[in-house]
Specification:
310 residues; mainly alpha; DNA polymerase, domain 1; hpI Integrase, Chain A; flat
Length: 310
Amino acid sequence: METTELVHYRRALKRKNYSTHTVKTYLNILDQFMRWLTVPLSEVTRNEIGAYVDHLLRNRRTPKTITCHLQTIRLFFDYLINEEGLPMLNPVTRISLRLPKPLPRHLKDDQVPRLFGVITDLRDRAMFMLMLRCDLRVQEVAELTVDAVEYGRRQIFVFHGKGAKDRVVYMSEDARSALLAYLAKRSSKAKGLFLVQKGPMRGKPLSVRGIQKRIEYYARESELNVSCHQLRHTMATQLLNADADLATIQDLLGHGQITTTQRYCRVANLKVQRDYYKAMEVVLQRTQAQQEDDEGESMESYGDAENELS
């Protein structure tokens, strides 16, 4: 059962238009923290926060997870202090855990047809083709509606994406064809785009976990290490290798910060390779021209010296 503080905080988050998923995540983290606490919230200091970090480390939580806990707890105390008038200093003053920065994992060009070669179900093919070609997150795909797609203009309107942001993404011809093939077979008039096809939940929108289970099945069938999010990584890397502007990729992915998109520059080796050789050609041409100029000046100087001696 939620405490009074968490009930009030839930309302505050909803008033600020936080997504249902974010509210659930925040409250789950705070519930864990408050169950662990042995002192009232007003008496929490940096010592308790440090002890809680040690507790999470003993439970083998990753640095990324621990950082998420600390950020959530800091926001909660900001709320208690600024909106509830709790007379204290925020005990989470600095988050100094060193986070690893792994490269985004993506499929190689020859692995993409290998994956889609085992996806014969029309719904699943359309679903994963949209992730690959339109840079959609799994949550965004699960919440897509039939009305969100404009087939003539090959556009998809993503409402309330990550960070409650709306954006427009575009469909390639193969993604559009896959989607139309699925809709031609689908008989339901439900608003949700991708529906459960069997069992007691038939006709209901497919859940995030349901979509993830499908990609896990196809990963086993194709013997590839692939996830839903890797399809996004694959598209971003392909766009960068095709010389798409970084700001364009940022907009398509729905990234709030360009630094998040810049991670793909570290894996898009084809673009780096092309840029290197293109620039190196210019460097070598200039070097060669400079050498020819220097040799010409040397020959002129040598000729002048001979004339003087004669």
